[in-house]
């Protein structure tokens, strides 16, 4: 009985191998279609769309049957209505005005100590930058004899002067902010000396 079972099992395996081999032979017999040919076939299968032959604009349309052109629609008020101005303003102007209002409100809430610290910090930065410029401007035999070092030193002086100009602008803004929120100028005095 064992011999009959093993004979049937080996026959089933042989049939399975034969089916697999026949399938792979049949797959090899089908010709490979080039990709370019597949693209051409896909393009040909797409439906064609007609392009419009005439474009219509508002000038082509008429309000009535007499052929008179339709009147232009009224121009809408552009922008946003400002509560403080009571009229429409552009989005950019609205943002600018809102930021200025918020900044003004924040500055108005700062204490005397905050204003004194800000002005003191700016004065210290101005003094430090002026000292830096003075140090870099001192004639030096090593700097003057080497063109590369001299060029680097000149660039450092130019950068320090630009930074000093930035500090001057920041001080001007601080004074303007103080005037705007009506704090006593004594809170930020004395102003730094921008002599250099």
Task: Show the helix and strand layout.
Layout: H1 2-29, H2 35-45, E1 80-81, E2 88-89, H3 91-108, H4 112-137, H5 141-145, H6 147-180
Antiparallel strand pairs: 1-2
Helix pairs in contact: 4-6
Question: How would you briefly describe this protein structure?
Answer:
The protein has helices spanning 2-29, 35-45, 91-108, 112-137, 141-145, 147-180, and strands spanning 80-81, 88-89. It is mainly α and 196 residues long. It has a two-stranded antiparallel sheet.
Describe what this molecule looks like in 3D.
The chain has 196 residues and is mainly alpha-helical. Among the domains are: 78-109, no CATH class; 111-196. It has 6 helices and 2 strands, in the order ααββαααα. Strands 1-2 form a two-stranded antiparallel ribbon. A hairpin with a 6-residue loop joins strand 1 and strand 2 (88-89). Helix 4 (112-137) runs antiparallel to helix 6 (147-180).
Which key terms come to mind for this protein?
196 residues, mainly alpha, two-stranded antiparallel sheet, 2 strands
Radius of gyration: 42 Å
How would a textbook summarize the main sheet? 2 strands, antiparallel
Order of helices and strands: HHEEHHHH
Q: How much helix is in the residues?
A: 55-70%
Total helical elements: 6
Q: How many E strands? A: 2
Shape: extended
What's the mean pLDDT score? 77
Contiguous runs where pLDDT drops below 50 for at least 5 residues: none
State the strand order across the main sheet.
Answer: 1-2
What is the rounded distance between the termini?
115 Å
User: Beta fraction of the residues?
Assistant: under 5%
- Structural class estimated from helices and strands: mainly alpha
